[in-house]
Amino acid sequence: SASYGLLLKEISDINVNKNKFYKNTAGMYLEGCSRINVSHNDFIDNGYAVRLMSNSVNNIFEKNNFIGNSFEVAANSGTSLNSFNNNYWSEYSGYDLNNDGIGDVPYHPVKLFSAIIEKNRPSLILLRSLFVDILNFAEKIFPTLTPETIVDNYPSMNTIPKQISNKIQIRKRI
User: Which candidate, 83, 85, 69, 60, places its Cα nearest to that of 27?
Assistant: First the structure.
């Protein structure tokens, strides 16, 4: 339960780019973090790809790949002041009628069962059960059960390629 790809506490104003978070309990855990730009990362086969605590605000997740995670995003609050845009979600089942590579239906990455687990940890034992399958199906029919503030309005239909740069960029903050 303590395998973190990246654990961030009380950190602000950083960029987390071009990383691979693979088979962790939590790929990325944010507590008390603000203004973190997370882009061009791969979150693959993690228990939780991203765990956001309610005191983490104004973080931007864009152009990341979320593939095969048990839970893509988990939050301990019903509201979130973070932004998710143009990420690839392997669980996304929307469509792209105009073929622009962006899903026409917003994607809500927080599952109802992950919200239940945040309130009652022992319920994790039911993860691969029929009960959870029924719960996930009910969630698709009644999407009001999960937080509406955590949403990717422009989900990518294809995996995001990593942008490789030959230049080393050093930023000096004044």
Answer: 69
